[in-house]
Amino acid sequence: MSDDATTALVTALERLSRAQREAAARIAGDLGRPRAALGVVRLLRVRGPVQLCEVADTLRVDASVASRQVGALVEGGYVRRTVDETDRRARTLELTDAGHRLAAQSDDRFDAFVAEAFADWSAEDLADAIDHIRDVADAISSVSQEAPPR
C-alpha cells in the first residue's frame, strides 16, 4: 500500500471512529448516562449474564475500567451482581428491569439515529458499506487480535 493510501485510510478510520463516538455520546447524553455505560448495557442485553472479565475482554478495556463502569451501573440500579452458581468465588453480572429498559431505549435511539443518517442511501449502497466495514474490521482484527487491550 502506498504512503498516500495508508494516510487516507488512517484518516478515514479516524473520522469514522470520531463520528461513532460523537453519535454514541449524544445518545448517551440524551439518556442521561455515560457513553461507556451504554456499551456495558448493550453487551449484557446481547450476551445475557456474564462475568466482569468477559465485559473487559469484549470492550477491550482493563478490568479496573470495566469494574468502575459496572459499579456505576450497579449503583444506578441497571445491573446486579450475583454469585456465580458454577464458581462461588465469581460474580455474574446481569441487567435489572431498569437495565433492560435502558437497553431498549438505547436501541431505539441508535436505530432512529441510523435511520436518519442513512435515509438517503439505497439498499445496495448500505449492503456494500456493511460488507466493506466488516472487511475493514476483520483486517484490523486479524493483525491486532493478539495485542493486549489498552
From TrEMBL:
GO terms for biological process: response to stress. Keywords: DNA-binding, Transcription, Transcription regulation. SUPFAM superfamilies: Winged helix' DNA-binding domain. Residues 6-138 form the HTH marR-type domain. One of its GO terms (molecular function) is DNA-binding transcription factor activity. Pfam families: MarR_2 (PF12802). PANTHER family: MARR-FAMILY TRANSCRIPTIONAL REGULATOR, TRANSCRIPTIONAL REGULATOR, MARR FAMILY. This is Winged helix DNA-binding protein. It comes from Isoptericola sediminis.
